[in-house]
Design goal:
This protein is α/β, with parallel strands linked by helices and 303 residues long. The protein has one domain: 3-Layer(aba) Sandwich (Rossmann fold), CATH 3.40.50. The protein contains 10 helices and 9 strands. The strands form 2 sheets. A 7-stranded parallel β-sheet has the order 1-9-8-5-4-2-3, sandwiched between helices. A two-stranded antiparallel ribbon has the order 6-7. Helix 3 packs across helix 4. It is globular and about 45 Å long. This is AB hydrolase-1 domain-containing protein.
């Protein structure tokens, strides 16, 4: 049995523009593809739009991967339209979202690499366990069933949603202050507000309720088969994360301790939940690219 490895890493703080390119089409067509490189599917979590992956898609495209970043069920292609039609996402849960992305995989004709953030990281693990993905990267993933740690910071991050049971059937919009605490606590408030204005959308409350009560429900949608035979998994934990504290990510990795597959863990010690969209995102993306190269997908990034 391959033992999971734990690597401690701290990334740098080189500034990069938040804007990124215009929203990219969901197409696996990218020039100069690496030979036999699987496509990479990016899956966002709650409160960030699918287009927040556009800078990552450009970077992965330059590394030889074709990419796609489908929207969630009910999410419009544009952030403006999603904000104006928030109720279109109401009521969707983990199972529906997972099935939605599995359907997006089917036309590809081969198993993709799935890279997910937050609840996208939970969905990525479910897709990998179902053996419809070649490999998965779960960045600050929402807790899967069996994770029992519950840090105070996480309770505070989720209270605005979980404090009202009616939110399980609604979409919820975070305030700038709530976003700054949950996502932007490791960056300046001005940068957090800029990210909020540029990338955030309303999101369904149901997945958060399902994850919060997963350990009370034997058939929880947050269940992941951690003993399945499938491709390699990387879990990335942000050391300063409030929404998904590093202890939660580490506990999720520990759930794979008996898995017959490769399961790696990297801590980005100085990063919060905004790590995929803040000024340090290129370092996080390169960490993922380097891990993929180590696992036989693509070439390592030049530093």
């Amino acid at each position: 049995m391959v033992r999971p490895s734990i690597v401690i890493a701290s990334t740098g703080d080189t500034f990069h523009d938040l804007e990124g390119p215009e929203t990219m089409p969901d197409t696996p067509d990218t020039p100069h593809l690496a030979v036999d490189a699987p496509p990479v599917m990016f899956i966002h979590g709650l409160w960030l739009a699918a287009s927040s992956w556009d800078p990552w898609r450009t970077r992965f495209g330059a590394a030889g991967f074709s990419t796609l970043a489908p929207t969630w069920p009910g999410e419009a292609p544009s952030i403006t339209d999603t904000r104006e039609h928030a109720d279109d996402q109401a009521g969707y849960g983990i199972d529906e979202v997972t099935a939605h992305f599995a359907e997006a995989i089917a036309p590809l004709g081969r198993k993709p690499i799935v890279v997910g953030h937050s609840f996208g990281g939970l969905v990525a693990q479910k897709l990998l366990a179902a053996d419809v993905a070649a490999a998965a990267v779960a960045i600050d993933p929402a807790q899967i069933q069996g994770v029992k740690v519950l840090p105070l910071a996480q309770l505070r991050s989720t209270f605005s949603v979980l404090g009202n049971p009616a939110n399980a059937k609604r979409t919820v919009t975070l305030t700038p202050a709530a976003f700054a605490y949950s996502f932007g606590n490791a960056i300046d408030r001005s940068e957090s507000d800029e990210i909020y204005d540029h990338w955030t959308i309303p999101s369904p409350g149901r997945p958060l309720f399902q994850a919060a009560f997963a350990n009370l429900l034997p058939g929880s949608p947050a269940h992941v088969d951690t003993t399945a035979r499938r491709g390699p998994l990387l879990i990335l934990g942000g050391g300063q994360d409030h929404a998904v504290p590093e202890s939660v990510s580490r506990s999720a990795h520990h759930r794979y301790r008996k898995a017959p597959t490769d399961n790696d863990y990297i801590v980005l010690a100085d990063r919060g939940h905004s790590l995929t969209v803040d000024h340090g995102w290129p370092d996080v993306a390169d960490t993922v690219l380097d891990w993929l190269a180590q696992r036989g997908f693509g070439a390592p990034v030049s530093h």
